[in-house]
Protein backbone atom coordinates (compact mmCIF):
# COMPACT_ATOMS: atom_id res chain seq x y z
CA UNK A 1 0.00 0.00 0.00
CA UNK A 2 1.31 3.44 -0.90
CA UNK A 3 2.36 5.64 2.03
CA UNK A 4 -0.29 8.24 1.33
CA UNK A 5 -3.02 5.59 1.55
CA UNK A 6 -1.47 3.91 4.56
CA UNK A 7 -1.07 7.22 6.40
CA UNK A 8 -4.34 8.80 5.36
CA UNK A 9 -5.66 10.84 8.30
CA UNK A 10 -8.24 8.92 10.32
CA UNK A 11 -9.01 11.90 12.56
CA UNK A 12 -9.45 15.61 11.89
CA UNK A 13 -6.55 16.33 14.25
CA UNK A 14 -4.21 14.33 11.99
CA UNK A 15 -4.88 16.55 8.98
CA UNK A 16 -1.73 18.39 7.92
CA UNK A 17 -1.76 22.12 7.40
CA UNK A 18 -5.55 22.60 7.26
CA UNK A 19 -6.13 24.02 10.75
CA UNK A 20 -8.84 26.51 9.74
CA UNK A 21 -10.89 23.89 7.83
CA UNK A 22 -10.53 21.29 10.57
CA UNK A 23 -11.62 23.68 13.31
CA UNK A 24 -14.76 24.79 11.48
CA UNK A 25 -15.75 21.23 10.61
CA UNK A 26 -15.23 19.95 14.15
CA UNK A 27 -17.35 22.81 15.47
CA UNK A 28 -20.18 22.06 13.07
CA UNK A 29 -20.13 18.35 14.00
CA UNK A 30 -20.13 19.20 17.72
CA UNK A 31 -22.94 21.73 17.47
CA UNK A 32 -24.87 19.61 14.96
CA UNK A 33 -24.83 22.33 12.32
CA UNK A 34 -24.14 20.03 9.40
CA UNK A 35 -25.42 21.08 5.98
CA UNK A 36 -26.46 19.18 2.84
CA UNK A 37 -23.69 20.31 0.55
CA UNK A 38 -20.00 21.03 1.04
CA UNK A 39 -17.54 22.32 -1.51
CA UNK A 40 -13.86 21.61 -0.85
CA UNK A 41 -11.44 23.54 -3.01
CA UNK A 42 -7.64 23.82 -3.29
CA UNK A 43 -4.60 22.35 -5.05
CA UNK A 44 -4.26 18.61 -5.59
CA UNK A 45 -2.73 16.31 -3.00
CA UNK A 46 -3.43 18.38 0.09
CA UNK A 47 -6.22 16.40 1.76
CA UNK A 48 -9.60 17.23 0.20
CA UNK A 49 -10.63 13.60 -0.35
CA UNK A 50 -9.34 12.59 3.09
CA UNK A 51 -11.41 15.37 4.63
CA UNK A 52 -14.50 14.27 2.68
CA UNK A 53 -14.15 10.76 4.12
CA UNK A 54 -13.57 12.13 7.63
CA UNK A 55 -16.74 14.14 7.28
CA UNK A 56 -18.65 11.08 6.03
CA UNK A 57 -17.51 9.27 9.19
CA UNK A 58 -18.33 12.17 11.51
CA UNK A 59 -21.85 12.34 10.02
CA UNK A 60 -22.44 8.60 10.50
CA UNK A 61 -20.27 7.64 13.49
CA UNK A 62 -22.45 5.64 15.88
CA UNK A 63 -20.63 7.00 18.91
CA UNK A 64 -21.18 10.63 17.88
CA UNK A 65 -24.84 9.95 17.01
CA UNK A 66 -25.41 8.26 20.38
CA UNK A 67 -23.78 11.17 22.23
CA UNK A 68 -26.00 13.66 20.42
CA UNK A 69 -29.11 11.63 21.14
CA UNK A 70 -28.27 11.67 24.85
CA UNK A 71 -27.37 15.37 24.73
CA UNK A 72 -23.81 14.53 25.72
CA UNK A 73 -20.86 16.52 24.45
CA UNK A 74 -18.57 15.14 21.73
CA UNK A 75 -15.14 16.13 20.42
CA UNK A 76 -16.47 15.87 16.88
CA UNK A 77 -13.83 13.28 16.02
CA UNK A 78 -15.07 9.97 14.53
CA UNK A 79 -14.42 7.00 16.84
CA UNK A 80 -12.88 4.75 14.15
CA UNK A 81 -14.27 1.76 16.09
CA UNK A 82 -17.98 1.55 15.30
CA UNK A 83 -19.23 -0.37 12.24
CA UNK A 84 -19.90 2.85 10.31
CA UNK A 85 -16.36 4.20 10.90
CA UNK A 86 -14.67 0.87 10.17
CA UNK A 87 -16.69 0.31 6.98
CA UNK A 88 -15.89 3.78 5.69
CA UNK A 89 -12.19 3.39 6.58
CA UNK A 90 -12.11 0.11 4.69
CA UNK A 91 -13.91 1.62 1.70
CA UNK A 92 -16.83 -0.81 1.86
CA UNK A 93 -19.64 1.40 3.16
CA UNK A 94 -22.26 1.19 0.40
CA UNK A 95 -23.90 4.42 1.56
CA UNK A 96 -20.73 6.43 0.95
CA UNK A 97 -20.46 6.83 -2.81
CA UNK A 98 -17.30 8.28 -4.36
CA UNK A 99 -17.53 9.51 -7.93
CA UNK A 100 -14.75 10.88 -10.09
CA UNK A 101 -16.47 13.54 -12.19
CA UNK A 102 -13.58 13.42 -14.66
CA UNK A 103 -14.88 10.07 -15.91
CA UNK A 104 -18.60 10.68 -15.21
CA UNK A 105 -19.16 14.04 -16.82
CA UNK A 106 -22.49 13.42 -18.55
CA UNK A 107 -26.00 14.34 -17.49
CA UNK A 108 -27.02 10.65 -17.51
CA UNK A 109 -24.42 9.83 -14.86
CA UNK A 110 -25.79 12.58 -12.62
CA UNK A 111 -29.46 11.63 -13.29
CA UNK A 112 -28.63 8.06 -12.31
CA UNK A 113 -26.93 9.32 -9.16
CA UNK A 114 -29.91 11.51 -8.25
CA UNK A 115 -32.38 8.64 -8.79
CA UNK A 116 -30.43 6.50 -6.35
CA UNK A 117 -30.04 9.37 -3.90
CA UNK A 118 -33.81 9.36 -3.38
CA UNK A 119 -33.62 5.86 -1.92
CA UNK A 120 -33.01 5.65 1.82
CA UNK A 121 -29.54 4.67 3.06
CA UNK A 122 -29.01 0.93 3.47
CA UNK A 123 -27.02 0.89 6.70
CA UNK A 124 -25.80 4.35 7.64
CA UNK A 125 -27.78 7.29 8.93
CA UNK A 126 -27.05 9.36 5.84
CA UNK A 127 -25.95 8.71 2.30
CA UNK A 128 -22.81 10.66 1.44
CA UNK A 129 -21.92 11.45 -2.18
CA UNK A 130 -18.31 12.51 -2.66
CA UNK A 131 -17.92 14.00 -6.15
CA UNK A 132 -14.25 14.59 -6.94
CA UNK A 133 -13.07 17.00 -9.68
CA UNK A 134 -16.65 18.30 -9.82
CA UNK A 135 -15.64 21.11 -12.23
CA UNK A 136 -15.45 18.44 -14.96
CA UNK A 137 -19.25 18.01 -15.06
CA UNK A 138 -21.04 19.14 -18.20
CA UNK A 139 -23.41 22.09 -18.07
CA UNK A 140 -26.52 19.90 -18.16
CA UNK A 141 -25.04 17.66 -15.47
CA UNK A 142 -24.50 20.72 -13.27
CA UNK A 143 -28.12 21.76 -13.87
CA UNK A 144 -29.41 18.34 -12.86
CA UNK A 145 -27.24 18.44 -9.73
CA UNK A 146 -28.43 21.95 -8.94
CA UNK A 147 -32.09 20.84 -8.78
CA UNK A 148 -31.18 18.26 -6.16
CA UNK A 149 -29.10 20.75 -4.19
CA UNK A 150 -32.07 23.14 -4.16
CA UNK A 151 -34.31 20.53 -2.54
CA UNK A 152 -32.03 17.88 -1.11
CA UNK A 153 -33.52 14.72 0.41
CA UNK A 154 -33.13 14.80 4.20
CA UNK A 155 -30.96 11.67 4.21
CA UNK A 156 -28.32 12.85 1.68
CA UNK A 157 -25.10 14.89 1.99
CA UNK A 158 -23.09 16.00 -1.04
CA UNK A 159 -19.37 16.68 -0.69
CA UNK A 160 -18.00 18.26 -3.85
CA UNK A 161 -14.24 18.63 -4.35
CA UNK A 162 -12.41 20.66 -6.97
CA UNK A 163 -9.00 22.00 -7.90
CA UNK A 164 -10.59 24.63 -10.16
CA UNK A 165 -13.12 26.63 -8.23
CA UNK A 166 -13.51 29.23 -11.02
CA UNK A 167 -15.17 26.57 -13.19
CA UNK A 168 -17.96 25.96 -10.69
CA UNK A 169 -21.24 27.75 -11.58
CA UNK A 170 -22.29 30.47 -9.14
CA UNK A 171 -25.62 28.70 -8.59
CA UNK A 172 -23.77 25.67 -7.18
CA UNK A 173 -21.39 27.85 -5.13
CA UNK A 174 -24.32 29.59 -3.46
CA UNK A 175 -25.82 26.30 -2.31
CA UNK A 176 -22.77 24.70 -0.74
CA UNK A 177 -20.66 25.52 2.29
CA UNK A 178 -17.22 26.25 0.92
CA UNK A 179 -13.86 25.29 2.44
CA UNK A 180 -10.59 26.55 0.98
CA UNK A 181 -7.68 24.17 1.48
CA UNK A 182 -4.16 25.57 1.63
CA UNK A 183 -0.76 24.11 0.89
CA UNK A 184 0.88 22.79 4.03
CA UNK A 185 3.88 24.64 5.46
CA UNK A 186 7.38 23.24 5.11
CA UNK A 187 7.71 22.54 8.84
CA UNK A 188 4.36 20.76 9.06
CA UNK A 189 5.37 18.52 6.17
CA UNK A 190 8.77 17.79 7.74
CA UNK A 191 7.12 16.88 11.06
CA UNK A 192 4.80 14.45 9.32
CA UNK A 193 7.62 12.97 7.22
CA UNK A 194 9.62 12.40 10.42
CA UNK A 195 6.69 10.59 11.98
CA UNK A 196 6.20 8.34 8.94
CA UNK A 197 9.95 7.67 8.57
CA UNK A 198 10.09 6.62 12.23
CA UNK A 199 7.12 4.26 11.89
CA UNK A 200 8.53 2.80 8.68
CA UNK A 201 12.02 2.53 10.23
CA UNK A 202 13.51 4.63 7.44
CA UNK A 203 16.86 6.14 8.47
CA UNK A 204 17.05 9.53 6.82
CA UNK A 205 18.71 12.81 7.79
CA UNK A 206 16.82 16.05 8.48
CA UNK A 207 18.25 17.82 5.43
CA UNK A 208 16.76 15.12 3.21
CA UNK A 209 13.34 15.48 4.82
CA UNK A 210 13.58 19.23 4.39
CA UNK A 211 14.47 18.83 0.72
CA UNK A 212 11.54 16.45 0.20
CA UNK A 213 9.19 18.94 1.87
CA UNK A 214 10.43 21.76 -0.36
CA UNK A 215 10.16 19.60 -3.50
CA UNK A 216 6.57 18.67 -2.61
CA UNK A 217 5.50 22.36 -2.71
CA UNK A 218 3.10 21.98 0.18
CA UNK A 219 1.35 18.87 -1.12
CA UNK A 220 1.21 16.29 1.65
CA UNK A 221 0.50 13.44 -0.78
CA UNK A 222 3.52 14.33 -2.95
CA UNK A 223 5.77 14.56 0.11
CA UNK A 224 4.87 11.01 1.15
CA UNK A 225 5.29 9.80 -2.44
CA UNK A 226 8.79 11.30 -2.60
CA UNK A 227 9.76 9.81 0.76
CA UNK A 228 8.63 6.43 -0.50
CA UNK A 229 10.64 6.87 -3.69
CA UNK A 230 13.78 7.85 -1.78
CA UNK A 231 13.39 5.00 0.74
CA UNK A 232 12.97 2.48 -2.07
CA UNK A 233 16.09 3.69 -3.88
CA UNK A 234 18.52 3.90 -0.96
CA UNK A 235 20.58 1.49 1.11
CA UNK A 236 21.12 2.12 4.82
CA UNK A 237 20.99 5.63 6.25
CA UNK A 238 19.82 8.11 3.63
CA UNK A 239 21.90 11.28 3.22
CA UNK A 240 21.07 14.52 1.45
CA UNK A 241 23.37 13.61 -1.40
CA UNK A 242 21.56 10.30 -2.04
CA UNK A 243 18.21 12.04 -1.75
CA UNK A 244 19.23 14.56 -4.36
CA UNK A 245 20.45 11.84 -6.64
CA UNK A 246 17.31 9.72 -6.30
CA UNK A 247 15.06 12.73 -6.85
CA UNK A 248 17.17 13.81 -9.82
CA UNK A 249 18.15 17.08 -8.15
CA UNK A 250 21.65 18.42 -8.58
CA UNK A 251 23.79 19.32 -5.58
CA UNK A 252 23.70 22.96 -4.49
CA UNK A 253 27.46 22.94 -4.84
CA UNK A 254 27.08 21.89 -8.47
CA UNK A 255 24.64 24.75 -9.14
CA UNK A 256 27.01 27.22 -7.50
CA UNK A 257 30.02 25.89 -9.40
CA UNK A 258 28.05 26.28 -12.64
CA UNK A 259 27.05 29.87 -11.87
CA UNK A 260 30.59 30.64 -10.71
CA UNK A 261 31.95 29.47 -14.07
CA UNK A 262 29.58 31.84 -15.86
CA UNK A 263 30.26 34.76 -13.50
CA UNK A 264 33.96 34.27 -14.23
CA UNK A 265 33.44 33.90 -17.98
CA UNK A 266 34.67 30.32 -18.27
CA UNK A 267 32.20 28.83 -20.78
CA UNK A 268 34.12 25.53 -21.11
CA UNK A 269 33.61 24.87 -17.42
CA UNK A 270 29.87 25.68 -17.56
CA UNK A 271 29.33 23.51 -20.63
CA UNK A 272 31.28 20.67 -19.04
CA UNK A 273 29.11 20.73 -15.90
CA UNK A 274 25.94 20.77 -18.02
CA UNK A 275 27.16 17.82 -20.09
CA UNK A 276 28.16 15.82 -17.01
CA UNK A 277 24.79 16.36 -15.34
CA UNK A 278 23.13 15.28 -18.57
CA UNK A 279 25.27 12.13 -18.75
CA UNK A 280 24.46 11.29 -15.14
CA UNK A 281 20.76 11.48 -15.94
CA UNK A 282 19.87 14.59 -13.95
CA UNK A 283 16.69 16.45 -14.75
CA UNK A 284 18.14 19.50 -16.48
CA UNK A 285 14.93 21.53 -16.41
CA UNK A 286 15.05 21.08 -12.63
CA UNK A 287 18.71 22.13 -12.65
CA UNK A 288 17.75 25.23 -14.65
CA UNK A 289 15.15 26.06 -11.99
CA UNK A 290 17.79 25.62 -9.29
CA UNK A 291 20.08 28.01 -11.19
CA UNK A 292 17.25 30.57 -11.38
CA UNK A 293 16.52 30.17 -7.67
CA UNK A 294 20.19 30.66 -6.78
CA UNK A 295 20.59 33.67 -9.09
CA UNK A 296 17.48 35.17 -7.52
CA UNK A 297 19.03 34.75 -4.08
CA UNK A 298 22.26 36.33 -5.32
CA UNK A 299 20.30 39.33 -6.60
CA UNK A 300 18.38 39.59 -3.33
CA UNK A 301 21.66 39.55 -1.40
CA UNK A 302 22.99 42.28 -3.68
CA UNK A 303 20.04 44.64 -3.41
CA UNK A 304 19.12 43.99 0.23
CA UNK A 305 22.15 42.92 2.20
CA UNK A 306 20.23 42.33 5.41
CA UNK A 307 17.57 40.13 3.83
CA UNK A 308 16.76 36.80 5.48
CA UNK A 309 17.15 33.99 2.97
CA UNK A 310 16.01 30.40 3.35
CA UNK A 311 18.88 28.06 4.03
CA UNK A 312 21.50 26.94 6.52
CA UNK A 313 24.31 29.26 7.67
CA UNK A 314 26.72 27.34 5.49
CA UNK A 315 24.47 27.80 2.44
CA UNK A 316 24.11 31.54 3.06
CA UNK A 317 27.87 31.86 3.44
CA UNK A 318 28.44 30.15 0.10
CA UNK A 319 25.76 32.29 -1.55
CA UNK A 320 27.39 35.45 -0.24
CA UNK A 321 30.73 34.33 -1.66
CA UNK A 322 29.09 33.62 -5.00
CA UNK A 323 27.36 37.00 -4.95
CA UNK A 324 30.78 38.62 -4.56
CA UNK A 325 31.81 37.37 -8.00
CA UNK A 326 29.42 39.47 -10.09
CA UNK A 327 27.59 42.75 -9.91
CA UNK A 328 23.83 43.16 -9.64
CA UNK A 329 23.28 44.00 -13.32
CA UNK A 330 25.17 40.95 -14.48
CA UNK A 331 23.26 38.66 -12.12
CA UNK A 332 19.97 40.12 -13.39
CA UNK A 333 21.13 39.73 -16.98
CA UNK A 334 21.88 36.05 -16.34
CA UNK A 335 18.50 35.57 -14.69
CA UNK A 336 16.84 36.83 -17.86
CA UNK A 337 18.83 34.40 -19.99
CA UNK A 338 18.07 31.37 -17.82
CA UNK A 339 14.38 32.23 -17.57
CA UNK A 340 14.11 32.73 -21.33
CA UNK A 341 16.00 29.58 -22.29
CA UNK A 342 14.23 27.63 -19.54
CA UNK A 343 11.09 27.92 -21.67
CA UNK A 344 12.85 25.89 -24.38
CA UNK A 345 13.04 22.67 -22.34
CA UNK A 346 9.60 21.64 -23.58
CA UNK A 347 10.41 22.48 -27.19
CA UNK A 348 13.81 21.02 -27.98
CA UNK A 349 14.73 17.39 -28.45
CA UNK A 350 18.23 17.66 -26.91
CA UNK A 351 17.70 18.15 -23.16
CA UNK A 352 21.07 19.81 -22.56
CA UNK A 353 20.61 22.42 -25.31
CA UNK A 354 18.80 25.15 -23.32
CA UNK A 355 21.57 25.13 -20.70
CA UNK A 356 24.21 25.25 -23.42
CA UNK A 357 22.50 28.20 -25.06
CA UNK A 358 22.42 29.99 -21.72
CA UNK A 359 26.11 29.37 -21.08
CA UNK A 360 27.06 30.50 -24.57
CA UNK A 361 24.91 33.59 -24.43
CA UNK A 362 25.87 34.60 -20.91
CA UNK A 363 29.60 34.21 -21.39
CA UNK A 364 29.54 35.56 -24.96
CA UNK A 365 31.45 32.56 -26.17
CA UNK A 366 33.32 33.48 -29.34
CA UNK A 367 33.17 30.09 -31.03
CA UNK A 368 36.91 29.58 -31.44
CA UNK A 369 37.68 27.29 -28.55
CA UNK A 370 38.66 23.74 -29.38
CA UNK A 371 37.75 22.32 -25.97
CA UNK A 372 35.83 19.04 -26.30
CA UNK A 373 32.90 20.33 -24.29
CA UNK A 374 32.54 23.37 -26.50
CA UNK A 375 32.80 21.30 -29.67
CA UNK A 376 30.16 18.92 -28.36
CA UNK A 377 27.89 21.85 -27.53
CA UNK A 378 28.42 23.13 -31.04
CA UNK A 379 27.50 19.70 -32.42
CA UNK A 380 24.29 19.74 -30.38
CA UNK A 381 23.42 23.20 -31.61
CA UNK A 382 23.95 22.14 -35.21
CA UNK A 383 21.93 18.97 -34.91
CA UNK A 384 19.14 20.92 -33.24
CA UNK A 385 19.14 23.32 -36.17
CA UNK A 386 18.68 20.30 -38.45
CA UNK A 387 15.66 19.24 -36.40
CA UNK A 388 14.29 22.72 -36.47
CA UNK A 389 14.60 22.98 -40.22
CA UNK A 390 12.21 20.05 -40.42
CA UNK A 391 9.75 21.80 -38.19
CA UNK A 392 9.70 25.49 -38.95
CA UNK A 393 6.44 25.91 -37.10
CA UNK A 394 7.84 25.83 -33.58
CA UNK A 395 7.64 29.55 -33.13
CA UNK A 396 9.17 29.53 -29.66
CA UNK A 397 12.54 28.21 -30.75
CA UNK A 398 13.00 30.16 -33.95
CA UNK A 399 14.68 33.11 -32.23
CA UNK A 400 17.27 30.68 -30.85
CA UNK A 401 17.83 29.30 -34.32
CA UNK A 402 18.21 32.74 -35.81
CA UNK A 403 20.71 33.63 -33.10
CA UNK A 404 22.78 30.58 -33.92
CA UNK A 405 22.79 31.33 -37.64
CA UNK A 406 23.96 34.84 -36.97
CA UNK A 407 26.64 33.52 -34.64
CA UNK A 408 27.89 31.08 -37.24
CA UNK A 409 28.08 33.52 -40.08
CA UNK A 410 29.34 36.53 -38.19
CA UNK A 411 32.91 35.35 -37.57
CA UNK A 412 33.50 35.34 -41.35
CA UNK A 413 32.25 38.84 -41.70
CA UNK A 414 35.23 41.03 -40.77
CA UNK A 415 37.80 38.73 -42.39
CA UNK A 416 35.94 38.77 -45.68
CA UNK A 417 35.77 42.51 -45.51
CA UNK A 418 39.25 43.47 -44.39
CA UNK A 419 41.27 40.35 -45.10
CA UNK A 420 42.25 40.06 -41.42
CA UNK A 421 41.49 37.07 -39.26
CA UNK A 422 38.98 37.78 -36.55
CA UNK A 423 40.61 38.18 -33.19
CA UNK A 424 39.63 35.08 -31.17
CA UNK A 425 39.12 37.36 -28.17
CA UNK A 426 36.48 39.34 -29.99
CA UNK A 427 33.02 38.92 -28.60
CA UNK A 428 31.13 39.75 -31.74
CA UNK A 429 29.54 36.33 -32.04
CA UNK A 430 26.22 35.63 -30.34
CA UNK A 431 26.17 39.19 -29.07
CA UNK A 432 23.19 39.96 -31.19
CA UNK A 433 20.14 41.09 -29.27
CA UNK A 434 18.17 42.18 -32.28
CA UNK A 435 15.01 40.48 -33.33
CA UNK A 436 14.77 37.56 -35.67
CA UNK A 437 14.15 39.56 -38.85
CA UNK A 438 17.19 41.71 -38.33
CA UNK A 439 19.28 38.66 -37.59
CA UNK A 440 18.26 37.05 -40.82
CA UNK A 441 19.02 40.23 -42.68
CA UNK A 442 22.48 40.25 -41.10
CA UNK A 443 22.99 36.65 -42.13
CA UNK A 444 22.03 37.34 -45.72
CA UNK A 445 24.25 40.39 -45.82
CA UNK A 446 27.29 38.53 -44.55
CA UNK A 447 26.70 35.63 -46.94
CA UNK A 448 26.70 38.06 -49.79
CA UNK A 449 29.96 39.57 -48.63
CA UNK A 450 31.62 36.20 -48.42
CA UNK A 451 30.65 35.63 -52.04
CA UNK A 452 31.80 39.04 -53.24
CA UNK A 453 34.63 40.20 -50.98
CA UNK A 454 35.53 43.19 -53.17
CA UNK A 455 32.40 45.08 -52.06
CA UNK A 456 33.26 47.25 -49.08
CA UNK A 457 30.67 47.36 -46.39
CA UNK A 458 29.79 50.66 -44.73
CA UNK A 459 28.42 49.09 -41.54
CA UNK A 460 30.61 48.90 -38.42
CA UNK A 461 32.80 45.87 -37.77
CA UNK A 462 30.94 45.02 -34.61
CA UNK A 463 27.51 45.97 -33.42
CA UNK A 464 27.55 47.97 -30.19
CA UNK A 465 24.67 46.32 -28.37
CA UNK A 466 22.98 47.36 -25.15
CA UNK A 467 24.67 44.43 -23.41
CA UNK A 468 28.16 45.45 -24.44
CA UNK A 469 27.50 49.03 -23.46
CA UNK A 470 26.11 47.86 -20.14
CA UNK A 471 29.20 45.76 -19.58
CA UNK A 472 31.43 48.74 -20.34
CA UNK A 473 29.53 50.77 -17.74
CA UNK A 474 29.72 47.94 -15.18
CA UNK A 475 33.45 47.51 -15.69
CA UNK A 476 33.97 51.26 -15.44
CA UNK A 477 32.03 51.36 -12.18
CA UNK A 478 34.63 49.06 -10.62
CA UNK A 479 37.40 51.54 -11.40
CA UNK A 480 35.76 54.93 -11.33
CA UNK A 481 32.23 55.58 -10.13
CA UNK A 482 32.14 59.15 -11.45
CA UNK A 483 33.03 58.07 -14.95
CA UNK A 484 30.43 55.29 -14.78
CA UNK A 485 27.79 57.84 -13.77
CA UNK A 486 28.78 60.03 -16.72
CA UNK A 487 28.50 57.06 -19.08
CA UNK A 488 25.02 56.21 -17.84
CA UNK A 489 23.88 59.53 -19.27
CA UNK A 490 25.66 58.86 -22.54
CA UNK A 491 24.86 56.71 -25.54
CA UNK A 492 27.23 54.91 -27.93
CA UNK A 493 26.67 56.39 -31.40
CA UNK A 494 29.07 54.61 -33.67
CA UNK A 495 31.76 51.95 -33.53
CA UNK A 496 34.27 51.63 -36.33
CA UNK A 497 37.55 49.70 -36.62
CA UNK A 498 39.40 51.85 -34.12
CA UNK A 499 36.99 54.47 -32.77
CA UNK A 500 33.98 54.46 -30.52
CA UNK A 501 31.88 57.61 -30.73
CA UNK A 502 29.81 58.41 -27.67
CA UNK A 503 26.92 60.85 -27.74
CA UNK A 504 26.41 62.98 -24.62
CA UNK A 505 23.74 65.50 -23.70
CA UNK A 506 25.84 68.37 -22.38
CA UNK A 507 29.22 69.97 -22.89
CA UNK A 508 29.96 69.25 -19.24
CA UNK A 509 29.71 65.51 -19.90
CA UNK A 510 31.93 65.75 -22.94
CA UNK A 511 34.63 67.64 -21.04
CA UNK A 512 34.61 65.33 -18.06
CA UNK A 513 34.68 62.12 -20.09
CA UNK A 514 37.44 63.51 -22.30
CA UNK A 515 39.70 64.31 -19.33
CA UNK A 516 42.88 62.34 -19.86
CA UNK A 517 42.47 60.31 -16.66
CA UNK A 518 38.93 59.26 -17.66
CA UNK A 519 39.78 58.74 -21.32
CA UNK A 520 42.60 56.37 -20.37
CA UNK A 521 40.42 54.25 -18.09
CA UNK A 522 37.63 54.14 -20.64
CA UNK A 523 39.90 53.24 -23.51
CA UNK A 524 41.42 50.39 -21.49
CA UNK A 525 38.01 49.03 -20.47
CA UNK A 526 36.57 49.22 -23.97
CA UNK A 527 39.63 47.41 -25.28
CA UNK A 528 39.10 44.67 -22.70
CA UNK A 529 35.39 44.34 -23.32
CA UNK A 530 35.35 44.32 -27.12
CA UNK A 531 38.75 42.68 -27.50
CA UNK A 532 40.55 45.25 -29.64
CA UNK A 533 42.23 48.62 -29.30
CA UNK A 534 39.79 51.43 -29.49
CA UNK A 535 39.90 55.16 -28.87
CA UNK A 536 36.93 57.16 -27.64
CA UNK A 537 35.46 60.29 -29.16
CA UNK A 538 32.73 62.31 -27.45
CA UNK A 539 30.14 64.40 -29.26
CA UNK A 540 27.13 66.31 -28.02
CA UNK A 541 23.90 64.96 -29.49
CA UNK A 542 20.49 66.60 -29.85
CA UNK A 543 18.95 64.59 -27.03
CA UNK A 544 16.14 63.24 -29.17
CA UNK A 545 17.40 59.66 -29.15
CA UNK A 546 16.23 57.44 -26.40
CA UNK A 547 19.03 56.79 -23.92
CA UNK A 548 20.10 53.16 -23.78
CA UNK A 549 20.03 53.13 -20.02
CA UNK A 550 16.26 53.69 -19.94
CA UNK A 551 15.57 50.63 -22.07
CA UNK A 552 17.86 48.55 -19.95
CA UNK A 553 16.04 49.64 -16.81
CA UNK A 554 12.67 48.60 -18.25
CA UNK A 555 14.09 45.19 -19.15
CA UNK A 556 15.46 44.81 -15.67
CA UNK A 557 12.17 45.74 -14.06
CA UNK A 558 10.40 43.21 -16.24
CA UNK A 559 12.81 40.45 -15.29
CA UNK A 560 12.69 41.42 -11.66
CA UNK A 561 8.88 41.27 -11.67
CA UNK A 562 8.96 37.87 -13.33
CA UNK A 563 11.61 36.39 -11.08
CA UNK A 564 10.47 37.58 -7.73
CA UNK A 565 7.09 36.00 -8.25
CA UNK A 566 8.78 32.62 -8.58
CA UNK A 567 8.54 31.04 -5.18
ZN1 LIG B 1 -17.52 5.74 14.83
Describe the protein.
The protein has 567 residues and is α/β, with parallel strands linked by helices. The protein has five domains: 178 residues, P-loop containing nucleotide triphosphate hydrolases (Rossmann fold), CATH 3.40.50.300; 59 residues, Helicase, Ruva Protein, domain 3 (Orthogonal Bundle); 140 residues, Up-down Bundle (Zinc Finger, Delta Prime, domain 3), CATH 1.20.272; 50 residues; 81 residues, DnaA, N-terminal domain (GMP Synthetase, Chain A, domain 3, 2-Layer Sandwich), CATH 3.30.300. Helices cover 56% and strands 8% of the residues. It is built from 27 helices and eight strands. The protein has a five-stranded parallel beta sheet, covered by helices on one side. It has a three-stranded mixed beta sheet with strand order 6-7-8, covered by helices on one side. It is elongated and about 100 Å long. It binds zinc ion. The site of zinc ion has 9 residues, from helix 4 and helix 5. Zinc ion binds next to helix 4 and helix 5. Keywords: ATP-binding, DNA replication, DNA-directed DNA polymerase, Metal-binding, Nucleotide-binding, Nucleotidyltransferase, Transferase, Zinc. GO terms for molecular function: ATP binding; DNA binding; DNA-directed DNA polymerase activity; metal ion binding. It catalyses: DNA(n) + a 2'-deoxyribonucleoside 5'-triphosphate = DNA(n+1) + diphosphate. DNA polymerase III is a complex, multichain enzyme responsible for most of the replicative synthesis in bacteria. This DNA polymerase also exhibits 3' to 5' exonuclease activity. Pfam families: DNA_pol3_delta2, DNA_pol3_gamma3, DNAX_ATPase_lid, DnaX_C.
Amino acid sequence: MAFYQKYRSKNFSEMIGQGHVVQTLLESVKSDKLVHAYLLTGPRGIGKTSTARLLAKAINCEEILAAKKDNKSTTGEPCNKCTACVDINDGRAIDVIEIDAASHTGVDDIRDLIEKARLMPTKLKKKVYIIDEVHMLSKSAFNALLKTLEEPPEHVVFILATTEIHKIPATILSRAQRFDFKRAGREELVENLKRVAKTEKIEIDDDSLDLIAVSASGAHRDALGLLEQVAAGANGKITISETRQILGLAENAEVEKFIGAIFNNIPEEGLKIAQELHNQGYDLAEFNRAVITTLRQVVLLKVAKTIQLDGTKEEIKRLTELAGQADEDRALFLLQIFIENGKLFKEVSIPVLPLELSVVKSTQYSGFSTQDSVLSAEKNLKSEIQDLKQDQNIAAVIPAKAGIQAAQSQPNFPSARSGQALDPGSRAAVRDDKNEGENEAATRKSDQEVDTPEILCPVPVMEMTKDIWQEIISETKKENATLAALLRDAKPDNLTDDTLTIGVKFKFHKERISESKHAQILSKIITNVIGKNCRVVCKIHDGKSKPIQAEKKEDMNKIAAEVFEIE
